[in-house]
Amino acid sequence: MKTFDPWPVFFRREWKRNWPFLTGFAITGFIITKMTANFTEEDLKNSKFVQEHKKR
After folding, report:
1. Residue ranges making up the domain that contains 19
2. What Cα–Cα distance (Å) separates residue 1 from each residue in 7, 8, 27, 52?
3. How many domains does the chain have?
4. What values do phi and psi take at 47, rounded to 5?
């Protein structure tokens, strides 16, 4: 006798609820990664944010 596998049901139900969050999270991560990948070492040296965090 085959046992019931709840994962497909659970995944389908949760995907319907969580896809906006997951999609937004992926898009935001992609944008942040794209923006920070363009920084050069000179940009990082001149950054107030980086300088402030190196002091600590």
Report:
1. 8-55
2. 18, 19, 44, 64
3. 1
4. -75, 130
